[in-house]
Amino acid sequence: MRRFPENEPVFVPIGVVNLGPVLVEPADDNDQLQRISAAVQCASGSFRMLRGSGATLEQAVAELMSPLLRKPILVTVCLESTGAAVTSTRSHQSVHVHVHESQHGQPVGEMAQGAGAAPTREHALVAAVLRALHHSPLLKAEFRNAGQREIYREARQLSAEIVTALGLPELDESRLSKIVEIVSDHMNRFAVGQVIATANASDPVSRLRRYDATCLFTDRDGHIMDRDTDTDEWWRWYPGLANDDLTLAQVLETMPAAPPSDIPWVVRLFENPKSWLRLRGAIELKPHDILHVALGRGLLDQDEAFVIGFTMGTTKNLTRLERRTFKWIVSHLYPEPYRIPPELLAAYDLGAEAGKQMGTAQIFKQRLEELLPLPLGTVRKRLQIDTAELRGYYAREKQCIPGTLASARLASAIHVETG
Q1: 365 and 220 in one domain?
Q2: Parallel, antiparallel or unpaired: strands 73-84 and 91-103
Q3: Is 82 helix (H, G, I), strand (E, B) or coil?
Q4: Is residue 363 a contact partner of residue 379, using CB atoms and an 8 Å limit?
Q5: Is a pLDDT exceeding 60 seen at residue 418?
Q6: Does 118 lie in the same domain as 28?
Q7: On the CB side of 397, how many CA atoms lie within 13 Å of its CA?
Q8: Would you say residue 35 lies in a domain?
Q9: Which residues have a Cβ under 8 Å from the Cβ of 104 and sit 6 or more positions away?
Q10: What is the tally of structural domains in the chain?
Q11: Which residue range(s) make up the domain with 185?
């Protein structure tokens, strides 16, 4: 039976993977290949034994990592040192590596960097490569933190913007990837702390007001942006009202919508027009998305509340009991992420009021998909949506629910109209 050295650390967490003992096997006289094994514990709690071989230890580690990867990699050691660990007098090997995607044995694409320290060089090398992979998009989804791809993308974009803003010469990939590594680590530390802080906040809406949302809609020159549709982030997407010249289809195509299969049965029960327990104003998914665009609303809870309220309001005789019933259902029965906290339901009431005062009667029964080829200015006229009057409701909503991202976007719509 294979035995691992007793002085190896038991399991060291790196992202969602725990790295266990690492063993280099003696080279075979026949092929002289380096062989290495490593035990890892996955996020699911299961254990895996990884094995790799190659002409060099770096090549063996690259092969060892292959079950965790979306694409093959090339590993290069850029720095090694020996010294005492910070918390111990024991001697440790420290290794810094560069990791590239590999095509036909050649490095391609963006570089990632990582560092590892352990009693043995092989263990430090495996740890360094695993850390570098967490600063890249190369790991399979089950072996990385859920938000790591977004962290990497934002860190790389931020690093490039800083270099450009300071007028620095273009950095080579080695230097840029080092900045990305540092920024990614800081972003992860900050994000972990803020997730804990927001999870323990007693007031749900205070979580939405924790940071300055206006920076999402202010460019480098201080101009307020009237829309943000060039994104695949559902929480950022916002069509705004300053788009009368674009067709409904053009804007709708930019919406990062969830597929119907992702909608829970309880939501379908009350909002699907074919349900036996549907509420008044129930509408199919695509016409509902069309109303998001026509009303200039994004996909946040607050936006959703207004759009649903507007749709129900176009019945023109929505009762107080129906309003209260829906608000209780959406804030108590709906599961996350479809649940809307009571503190945001002022948007629903304003939407219901707006739908009663304007908008085609029973808009949820109209053939909205026939409007797709038309400019949004024409669409809004056909649906009797007055953008000036709508901005008045948005100004009231901003006062009722201040500080949220949805309200910040409403403020930009109001500013565009008046300023």
Answers
A1: yes
A2: antiparallel
A3: strand
A4: no
A5: no
A6: yes
A7: 35
A8: yes
A9: none
A10: 3
A11: 148-199
